Amino acid sequence: MVYSAADPNTAKYDVIKSRYDTLVNEKAKIEKRLAELSEILHQNGDVELDTPLVDDEGFPRSDIDVALIRITRNNIRCLNTDHKQIMLELETALHELHEYARQNPSGKCSHPSKQDSNEDRQIEEKSSEVIKTPFLRIDQIAPNSIAEQADLKIGDLVVQFGSVTAKNFSSLQDISTVFKNTPPGSCIQMSIIRGNNVNTVLSVSLLKPTGNASLGLHVVPV
C-alpha cells in the first residue's frame, strides 16, 4: 500500500496515521529496550530465557549473576507481551489506513496496488528531507521464504531492521538480537532502499515464523 502527500484537511486520515506513527515509535522503544536486556543476558554466560540457573546439584550457578538474570528475564517477558499487543494494534491501524485508501482513492492515500498481496504490507515513503543511510545489503534470499514472500530482492539496501539503524548498528549480532527477541507470530519492521531510488524507502513487515525457521535472507554490512 502506498501513501502520498495530499490534502491536509483530511482529519480522519491524520488521526489514524498519527496513531499508527505513535505505535511504530512505541514498538521501536520496546525493541531497543529488549536489545539492551538481551545484551545483559549475553554478557552473563550468553544465557537465554529458558537456560537453567542452577547447577547439576540444584544450587544457584556461581558463574553468573543469578538475581540479575532473573530480573532481566522477567523484564524481557513483560516487554514481549507489550510488543505483541503493540503489533496487534499496529495491524489494526494499518487495516484502517488501507480501508481509508480504498474509500478515498483521491484523498491522502492513493488506492492500494493490486499487484500482490504483499503490497498490503509495504509502505512507500518519499521524503526530500531525510535520506536514510543503509548499513546492510541483502545478498541471499531463500526460495519460498518469508523474505521472498515479502518481495525482498538481492541487492536491496537495509536502512532499518527492527530498532537497528545505521546510527546504532555495530555488528550482525544486533540483527540476531532483534530476531531473537521478537516473539513468533509478531512482525519485524524492515526498511529498504531498492536500486538507485535513494529518496524512496520501502517499509516491509516480516512475520517471524514459529519453531526454528528463519526469515530466509542473508545480509552483509555495507
TrEMBL record:
GO cellular component: cytoplasm; nucleus
Origin superkingdom: Eukaryota
Region described as Disordered: spans on this chain: 102-127
Ranges for domain Nas2 N-terminal: 22-99
SUPFAM superfamilies in the cross-refs: PDZ domain-like
Composition skew (Basic and acidic residues), residue ranges: 113-127
Pfam families: Nas2_N, PDZ_6
Family: Belongs to the proteasome subunit p27 family.
Protein name in the entry: 26S proteasome non-ATPase regulatory subunit 9
Species whose genome carries this gene: Trichobilharzia regenti
